[in-house]
Amino acid sequence: MANQFEVIVLGGGPAGYVAAIRSAQLGMSTAVIEKDKLGGVCVNIGCIPTKALLHSAYVANLLRHASELGVEAGAVKTDYGVAMKRSRRVSDQNSKGVEFLMKKHKITVVKGAGVLQPGRRVKVGNDVHEAKKAIIIATGSRVKGLPQIGLDLNKTTVISSDEALFLEKAPPSMTIIGAGWSSRTSSMRSAAR
To answer: How far apart are alpha carbons 63 and 13 in whole angstroms?
Structure first.
């Protein structure tokens, strides 16, 4: 016998958790299936930790140019590792906030990778979950290398924005391919040093 819900959401990122909350607010029994941490790319390895790093860079830059504002701040020393740890704390706090929202709205969170089955069913491990009304697919985005030009993501010399947001120290140099949000912020972090 399958676990039954009215709505099942595949993915616990910004689209998935908002859809789940709205479904629950409309009175439907709802489950979210997420293989990683709630909040998705945005909360865990995208927007939120990047903005936390940008804030550190902004403060460092502001202090470096404080004399232009009539403030004498002295020498500014930055510590990339401390800024990175703060960005991880901010990210974790936001992910826990999403967990709280799931509990508040009585949404069942199923950990694991969901595989669609016939008849509005989703298999997670050995368990099968059935949606009486709908399955919402909100699986988000994933990074991709460029193997056709020799840029396989090897997570050492060729990294994605995912790995960049877990570096403990800034690399001595980097080349950024792409102009998306994470690429722009990586450039800004480098410029702030």
So the answer is: 35
Range of the domain at 12: 3-142
Rounded Cα distance, 132 and 120, in Å: 7
Q: What is the 3-state secondary structure (H, E, C) of 95-139?
A: HHHHHHHHHHCCCEEEECCEEEECCCEEEECCEEEEEEEEEEECC
Cα–Cα distance, 140 to 149 (Å, whole number):
25
3-state secondary structure of 110: strand
Q: How far apart are CA 74 and CA 144, in angstroms?
A: 43
In a domain, 179, yes or no: no
What whole-number distance in Å separates Cα of residue 182 and Cα of residue 178? 9
Q: What is the pLDDT of residues 26-67, one digit of tens each?
A: 999 999 999 999 999 889 988 899 899 999 999 999 999 999
What residue has token string 């941490």? 37
Phi, psi of 142 (to 5 degrees): -140, 150
pTM value is: 0.79
Q: Could you give the number of structural domains in the chain?
A: 1
Q: Indicate the angle between helix axes 181-192 and 47-64, nearest 10 degrees.
A: 30
